[in-house]
Structure formats: C-alpha cells, structure tokens
Q: What sequence folds into this?
C-alpha cells in the first residue's frame, strides 16, 4: 500500500528541500503490510490541512463510499484527525505540537484505525509527526557565576551546563560557541543520551591582581534552517588561594526511582569531601545544571546533599533525568558530579477504552460474525503493566475478537431475536497484567431493530359466531384479533376478507370486516330459512415489506327466530273458509257413521312451520265445535277423533275448528276448519249436503238486505240533519 507524505502549509526556507526529500521516501509496502497505511506530516499544520487521501489509499472508489461508511477511531483523548464528509480525505483536526505530544521520543507516531463496512474491515493508519525548527535553544540560567582560585592550574575544566531545545534531530541543540578569550577555551561533551554539555577550560594561570573579573558569552545553536540560538552570560570571579577543592565520592551517580514514590521521600544523596579546615572545608551543595521542570521534582539539601522528591514522577511522561550537582567549599572552590536518574515503571494507570459502534441498532436478522462495535484499548504503562486483555461480562450472544494489539471487535456470536430481547447492556472490562492488575470498564447499550420475521397470529385458528336472524344491517357479528410480535409497521395488523363458503364476493355480500379493529359486521338482514350457516376467511396482514399474513376461519351460525306461523296443509285454508260469495265449490267434508265409537278417526289436520327447533314444534287444540264433547284433537298428532260414541240426538252436520300453535316466544298459530256429516253412508249424507247451499244463499240474501236497510237509514238521517241546518240558517238571515 502506498505511503503518502503531506507537507502542505509549512513555511520556511527549507520547504523545497524537504519536499524533495519527502518524495524520495514514497515507497510501496509488501503484502505483509497490506492493511497499514502510513503518512508523515510536519508539526504545526493548521486545522483542515490535508494528511492524505485515505479513501483512495484504502482502494475505495467514490461510488462505493456511501455503502462502505468509512470512519476512523483512535484511542487518544484528543481527536487529532478527522475525515471530510463529502470527500473522505484525512485532514488535521487541530494544531499538532510534536513536542507536547511526544517530547523527546522519536519518531513521533500517532496511530488510528480506519473502519469500513459491507464487508467489515479494519485498516491500521499511522501518522508520523515530523519535527520543524520551531524552538530556539534556551539556558536554564541566563547568568552563570564561577569562582576560580588564582592558583588553579591550566587545563582545569568548569561545567557550564547545557542548553535546552525541545526539537529533535538536526533541529535540536548541536553546538556551543564562546566569545574569544586567551585565558579560556570551550569544550563540548556529549552524554550517552545525546545531550551536549559545555565545559569551560582554563588555558592560562589567572592573576587576581591584574584582573579580578572576566565576562564571557556562551551561545547555544541548533542545526535547523535557519539556525536558532540562545545565550547565557558567564561571570568569572578570581579568588585568593584555597589549597584543596571539594571532591565528590563519585563522578557519576546512577539512581533508580519508582515512579510512585511519595513526595518528601529521600531519592538519593551526594557526598563530597574537602581536606581543608574551617570554612574552607564547609561544602554547600546545589544543582548547577537542571531544567526548571526538573527542579520542581527534586529538592537538594545544601548542607547534607540529600535529594528528596517534591513532585509527582511519571514514567509515562519522562523515563530519564540527568542533573549536575555542584559542591562549593567556603573558599569558593567547586566540584561537580553528574546524577543519572532512571524512573522505574509501576502499574499506576488503568487501561482506557474507547468504543466505536458500527451497528446500533442491530437488525435482528444479522448473521453471526457480524461486527457491531470496535473497541480501542490503551494502557500508558509499559511492559507487562501495559499489556491488556478484554472480556465481556454476562452470557450474551456476542463475543470479543482481537484484531490487533489494541483493537478488539465485538461480534455477533449467535442469532438475535428482538421479540425475546430488544436491547443488550454490555459491560466490557479491560485488565492489564500488572501486579496488582488494574482494570476499567465501559458499558455499551446495543438495541436490536425489528425486521418483519413474524406473521400475525390469530388468537384462535377458527372462530364461531352466532347471529339471530332478522338482524339489522350493520350489526356486529364478531371481533377477531391477531397479534404480531414485530414492532412498528411490521407489527401493525390490518384485516381483510379472503373468501369463504360462498367465495370472496359472496362473503362480502353477507359480512364486512373493519381493517383496523377486526370487527365483522352483517351487510344485510339474515334469514335462517334461507341460510342457516356460512363461513368466511379473514386474513390478517402486517405492514412490513414484504408483508406477512395469516388466515383464520369464521363460521357464522344464523339463529332461528319465531317469524313464521304454522301453515295448514289440510284441510286447505280456502276450502276451510267455505264457499265464497261467487258460488265456489263446497268445502271438503268428512262422513262419520252414526255407529262410530269413541276414538273413531275422523280426519287428520296436517300443518308445517318453516322455523326450526322449538319454533317449529306444533301442537293442536280444539277451539270450536258444534258438539264440543263429541270430538277431540291429538295434541301432537293433529288427529281428529270422536271423544265418545255418536248418538242419535247428535246433529247431522258438525263444524270442528282446530288451532295449530308453535312453541316460539311469542307463539304463532293458524286455524283449520273441518265439516263433518254424521251418516251411515254417502247416499244418506247427500241430502244434508244439498241443504247447505240453499241455507247459505238465504243467509247471504238476508245479509245483503240488512246492508241496504242500514244504508237507507243512514241517508235519511243525513237528510234530516241537513234540513235542520238549512232552517236554522234561514232564521239567522232574517234576524
């Protein structure tokens, strides 16, 4: 993968040279580093400066960028880089100062991870922050005073300390210069860590009587372009003879300090001796070459040489200190010793976790091995103290998978079901290997989004409804209900008619269903005698895409009401009414011999009822007869029989009226009229039958005459009233 370097916005005379050098550094990495992208930028770039075309270097085309959802995740507290929204180039998010981020560490590398989806992948990106010469060397003391005895032999050296330049490489402090003086020269020494120190060398014997003071200027220069420098003024006081200078027990003290040493603890002690006596043997200790920041961490007792910790030591900020200690006796003679302080790491930092959710909410149909989050774990400690392992609390359908040293992926381990668990509260704990180990935790709430994986389910697979006939149109028949375990539109159920025993069109003519409530209403009045039962199929369908549905059967039973009176089949209703005014044929009659005994079957009344059940149960009663005691009717059979033996005194013509009633509430009825002739034979009964028409005609004539008489009486009454009214009116007019 191509490594790109960005140096935009760096002003200075070396821009062209640097750019040419950077172009030579472009290289192609092998397949072993196929998932790492490296960039290099100078420090102090402004916000929005280009770091590199990240999307292009990852092999992502502009067309697939929206679907791949390129993002970056970093474990740093401060977000140094950002991605453009429309064109995902990696850009600087804010001012980057290499010295404040990395100090003297070189190279200064900021790491981050680029995450893409569909399919998921992680790319490791490292950005090297290059130093620019933005700091000039500085001395801890601008004025240095040195006491030199006039008897000091030539060749004696006096430490002048060292300048400080936070830049690195050629931009750091490279050399010292001293103003020319025949009595003194300058020697530059380099420590094992690369720090350069200046020492003043006495070239000739001093004469206090000729000159008591000497003034020099020490200049520290870096190797940047342009060169930056800093100065310190040196004052040399020539003193009278003092036989013996102080001597330290060691020229170099090496000290190892734990970083968690409490303030006030004794760190180390330096010791110097002087063979003189009196005040010339009294030694005063002081730091001669120490940075201000280091002076705040250590205190040197000027009498005892004990050095105590006065500030918080932090291995992660600085691992090594070098200080110079000066011992000066009462006569002004001095001695110098170096102290190398190594800070030992302890497990004083808990791991830090940063989360980047990839899928939240998670579709419940996500397949196992889908990455839902990326966890970046960092520990500022080193060695075993900085090695971290992660674990997830609880028995959840997820697992952690290590992607790199600091990156872990949260992956779906087993299928999800939103209907069972709609959200997961995941606690991830990072623990280092220190002694005792330190840990930290973070919580991630993952919601499971619904997919339409459940069809609506009816409370019953088959429903039964009972509707009394003659119902009003629009009457509620039944309410069906289906439930869908999905959420939102996927769980919103609508109801439709899906057919039935009479087909979809026939079912729609009988009932309708309300789409939202599932209520079935009758479309028209139902008639039990026409349709006793029917079935309809109701479909419940959700609002998902694609929609899911299920069907339930509703069987509707029409309940009978007593809305039909019994109908007499025999004797026929017209015949039973007798001969009409127009001279219709005589009604049927039954001939019963006069010798008939009790129980003789005269006739049987036949009736039917269109209703059902109790509404169709018929019973027969005798309501009228010429000789009530002569006949009886079977309660359930309708058979008309003689109740006793026929006697000689019984009239030859008998009229029997029977009522037929059902058992409905209220009961409905019909009547049947039967004419009976008592005779031994048909010839004997004929005279009786022939008399009936003449008598009938006489009765009809009498009725007609009675009608006309009543009409005439009414007309006469009306004329009388009219005459009285006219007479009254005439009298009123004359008045």
A:
């Amino acid at each position: 993968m191509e490594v790109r370097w960005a140096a935009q916005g760096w002003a200075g005379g070396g821009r062209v040279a640097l750019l040419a050098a950077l172009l030579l550094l472009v290289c192609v990495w092998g397949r072993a580093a196929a998932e790492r992208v490296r960039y290099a930028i100078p420090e102090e770039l402004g916000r929005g400066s280009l770091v590199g075309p990240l999307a292009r270097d990852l092999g992502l085309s502009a067309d697939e960028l929206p679907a791949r959802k390129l993002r970056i995740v970093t474990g740093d507290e401060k977000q140094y880089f950002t991605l453009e929204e429309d064109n995902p180039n990696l850009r600087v998010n804010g001012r980057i100062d290499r010295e404040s981020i990395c100090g003297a560490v070189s190279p200064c590398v900021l790491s981050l991870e680029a995450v893409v989806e569909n399919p998921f992948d992680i790319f490791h990106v490292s950005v090297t922050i290059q130093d620019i010469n933005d700091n000039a060397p500085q001395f801890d003391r601008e004025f240095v005073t040195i006491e030199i005895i006039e008897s000091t032999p030539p060749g004696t050296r006096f430490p002048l300390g060292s300048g400080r330049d936070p830049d690195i490489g050629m931009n750091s402090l490279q050399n010292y210069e001293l103003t020319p003086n025949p009595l003194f020269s300058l020697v530059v020494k380099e420590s094992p860590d690369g720090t350069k120190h200046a020492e003043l060398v006495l070239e000739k014997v001093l004469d206090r009587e000729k000159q008591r003071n000497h003034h020099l200027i020490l200049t520290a220069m870096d190797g940047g372009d342009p060169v930056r420098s800093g100065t310190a003024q040196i004052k040399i006081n020539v003193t009278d003879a003092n036989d013996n200078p102080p001597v330290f027990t060691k020229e170099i003290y090496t000290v190892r300090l734990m970083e968690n040493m409490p303030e006030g603890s004794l760190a180390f002690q330096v010791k110097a001796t002087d063979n003189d006596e009196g005040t010339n043997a009294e030694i005063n200790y002081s730091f001669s070459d120490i940075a201000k920041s280091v002076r705040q961490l250590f205190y040197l007792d000027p009498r005892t040489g004990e050095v105590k910790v006065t500030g918080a030591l932090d291995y992660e900020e600085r691992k090594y200190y070098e200080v110079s200690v000066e011992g000066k006796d009462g006569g002004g003679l001095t001695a110098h010793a170096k102290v190398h302080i190594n800070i030992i790491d302890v497990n004083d930092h808990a791991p830090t976790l940063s989360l980047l959710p990839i899928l939240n909410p998670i579709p419940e149909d996500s397949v196992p091995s889908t990455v839902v989050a990326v966890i970046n774990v960092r520990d500022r400690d080193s060695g075993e103290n900085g090695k971290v392992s992660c674990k997830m609390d609880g028995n959840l359908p997820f697992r952690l998978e290590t992607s790199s040293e600091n990156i872990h992926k949260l992956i779906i381990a087993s299928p999800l079901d939103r209907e069972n668990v709609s959200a997961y509260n995941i606690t991830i704990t990072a623990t280092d290997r220190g002694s005792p180990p330190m840990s930290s935790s973070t919580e991630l709430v993952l919601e499971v989004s619904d997919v339409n994986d459940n069809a609506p389910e009816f409370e019953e697979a088959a429903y039964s409804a009972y509707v009394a006939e003659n119902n009003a149109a629009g009457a509620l028949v039944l309410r069906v209900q289906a439930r869908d375990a999905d959420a939102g539109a996927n769980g919103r159920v609508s109801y439709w008619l899906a057919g039935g025993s009479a087909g979809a069109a026939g079912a729609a003519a009988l009932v309708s269903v309300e789409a939202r409530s599932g209520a079935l209403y009758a479309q028209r009045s139902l008639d039990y005698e026409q349709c006793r039962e029917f079935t309809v199929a109701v479909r419940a369908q959700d609002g998902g895409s694609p929609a899911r549905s299920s069907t339930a059967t509703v069987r509707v039973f029409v309940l009978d009401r007593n809305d039909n009176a019994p109908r007499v089949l025999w004797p026929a209703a017209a015949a039973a009414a007798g001969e009409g005014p127009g001279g219709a044929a005589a009604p049927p009659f039954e001939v019963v011999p006069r010798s008939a005994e009790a129980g003789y079957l005269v006739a049987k009344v036949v009736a039917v009822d269109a209703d059902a059940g109790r509404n169709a149960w018929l019973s027969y009663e005798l309501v009228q007869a010429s000789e009530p005691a002569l006949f009886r009717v079977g309660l359930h059979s309708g058979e008309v029989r003689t109740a006793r033996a026929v006697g000689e005194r019984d009239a030859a013509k008998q009229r029997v009226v029977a009522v037929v009633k059902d058992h409905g509430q209220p009961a409905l009825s019909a009547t049947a009229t039967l004419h009976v002739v008592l005779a031994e034979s048909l010839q004997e009964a004929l005279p009786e039958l022939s008399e009936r028409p003449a008598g009938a005609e006489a009765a009809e004539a009498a009725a007609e005459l009675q009608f006309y008489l009543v009409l005439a009486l009414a007309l006469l009454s009306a004329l009388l009233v009219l005459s009285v009214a006219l007479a009254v009116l005439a009298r009123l007019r004359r008045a």
About this structure: Residues 352-449 form a domain with the Immunoglobulin-like fold (CATH 2.60.40.60). The first strand starts at residue 4 and ends at 5. The mean pLDDT is 84.
